[in-house]
Amino acid sequence: MKKQWFAVHALSGHEFKVRNNMVKRLPIEEMEEFIGEILIPIEMVAEVKNGKKREIKKKFYPGYLFVNMALYDETNQIIERTWHFIKNTPSAIGFVGGDRPAPLPQDEVDQLMMQIEEKQDRVTPKIDFDTGEMIKITDGAFMNFNGTIEKIDPDRGKLTVTVSIFGRDTPVELEYWQVEKVS
Question: How far apart are the first and last CA of the chain?
């Protein structure tokens, strides 16, 4: 049986619950030969809340998971066992594509895998700043200074902020978590 990748719609916020339920049921319902890998593409995002830096998991596609499965047989008919396994999973809404879902094209699968691999070992800073925005520095040598964002470097998680020191505008490089928006 040929396995292909399909997108499965889940209740938002229940993606991991659906995945864990499927993984637990696979051996019980003897579905290992029909269901392969189950992916929820995520990245780690660093954000600052109430002055504390924390890392959270952010889903690339909230409300969806991707399952490598044998859904169609050699005659292109739906395999009922696979269909019902997915449809009877609590919090799983169903297949993207309705009653006759199409497998994901291979180039999309490759792009998805590449995206997962790129973000796997990296924490991405949460960006909610704009160039020209006024901020207050909350940490470091320039703590309690106000400044204007001149440049945003999302790859490095840095901001270039212009701060007035002794009446002269001076560019300072800071990390996202070292500043907050001025209300």
Answer: 59
Question: Are 141 and 174 in contact, with CB atoms under 8 Å apart?
Answer: no
Domain boundaries in the chain? Answer: 4-125, 134-181
**Tens-digit pLDDT string for the chain (183 aa):** 789 999 999 998 999 999 999 999 999 999 999 999 999 988 887 776 666 777 888 888 899 999 999 999 999 999 999 999 999 999 999 899 888 999 999 998 888 888 888 777 666 666 678 889 999 888 888 888 999 999 988 777 788 999 988 889 999 998 877 888 887
Task: Please say whether the structural domain 134-181 has been given the CATH code 3.20.20.70.
Answer: no
The pTM assigned to this predicted structure is 0.67
Name the CATH superfamily for 4-125: NusG, N-terminal domain (3.30.70.940)
